[in-house]
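Shipment paperwork, digital attachment
Item: protein structure file
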Amino acid sequence: MKKALMVWGGWDGHEPKACVDFFAEFLRSKNFEVEISDSPEAYTDKAGMADLDLIVPCVSMGAVTDEQQNGLLEAVAGGCGLAGWHGGLCDSYRNNVDYQFMTGGQWVSHPGGIVDYEVKFLPTGDPLTAGLKDFKIKSEQYYMHTDPSNEVLATTTFGGEPFAWIKGTVMPVSWKRAYGKGRVFYSSVGHVRADFDTYEAAELVRRGLLWAAR
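Attachment content:
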């Protein structure tokens, strides 16, 4: 049985507990032992962290101490997987650049707020996206700063509203990457729990969780 730690908190508007519970049920169905915590203090338990196969942070706009961050960085660099979605992974700790270096991206804007947009999968032949079809969703379309070393799985293209200068900008939506010996997966879709009622949005994260796990 593999072990996963899911940590939720931060801004309630992202419905972190509801999203964590949704994917915790999936992980348990795949024979994971799942621990759920509402504090990054869990990252300081060195013995417990060393025994994990997967970490799933869901903490938007939160704060983390150096000790807590270092516990997380060391676990992933040592081979534990890291996976997540939306602001829960890539807008968690805005002042912690080492954390952002690990995740491969950081949210900077969602032009227009809740908008209709399309997610397109790249024809990479990657098993993470095999058989998934491009999809449309009404949610926050994330504008991000991303690491060029990411292996991009899906993108979205911005229109010119409300900022004309970003019209036509193609932005990564989902990627995978390495951090030390660990595997990292991210999808920017998932502003609220209901976003995962869209099959492709949920299935992409499900596959990413399993792929990232040690």
